[in-house]
Automatic annotation (TrEMBL):
This is 3-phenylpropionate/cinnamic acid dioxygenase ferredoxin subunit. The lineage of its organism: Bacteria, Bacillati, Actinomycetota, Actinomycetes, Micrococcales. GO terms for molecular function: 2 iron, 2 sulfur cluster binding; dioxygenase activity; metal ion binding; monooxygenase activity; oxidoreductase activity, acting on paired donors, with incorporation or reduction of molecular oxygen. Transmembrane segments: none annotated. It comes from Microbacterium laevaniformans. It comes from the Bacteria. It holds the Pfam family Rieske. Keywords: 2Fe-2S, Dioxygenase, Iron, Iron-sulfur, Metal-binding, Oxidoreductase. CDD domains: Rieske_RO_ferredoxin (cd03528). Gene3D superfamilies: Rieske [2Fe-2S] iron-sulphur domain (2.102.10.10). Residues 4-100 form the Rieske domain. The keyword NADP does not apply.
Length: 109
């Protein structure tokens, strides 16, 4: 698989998550306050809730339902009740296009 256009940079608002789906894989895409674009799995590992409906603060995305915050860089939960990470996808910016390959996870180590 190769990276596909998920959306345009102009579709993103700073510190707000947008839900996209590529090849059946739901993702939350975020333009953080530093201008960096992140893509993480859109489903909270605690309650099967869409993370893109949550709240962005700094480099975290918080699930609106139960308050678990996930690192946009690593996908790791930063507090309970979630204890399993969400996947983090590699993002490429090409002009105004945000490209993501749902088969390629970002190296978070």
């Amino acid at each position: 698989m190769t990276a596909q256009k998920a959306l345009s940079l102009s579709d993103l608002t700073q510190d707000t998550a947008v839900r996209v789906e590529i090849d059946g894989v739901p993702m939350a895409v975020v333009l953080d306050s530093n201008g960096e674009v992140h893509a993480i799995g859109d489903t909270c590992t605690h309650g099967d809730i869409s993370l893109s409906d949550g709240f962005v603060e700094g480099e975290t995305l918080e699930c609106w339902a139960h308050g678990s915050a996930f690192s946009l860089r690593t996908g790791r939960p930063l507090n309970l009740p979630a204890y399993e990470p969400v996947p983090v996808y590699a993002v490429t910016i090409d002009g105004n296009d945000v490209l993501i390959d749902p088969a390629v996870l970002k190296d978070v180590n």
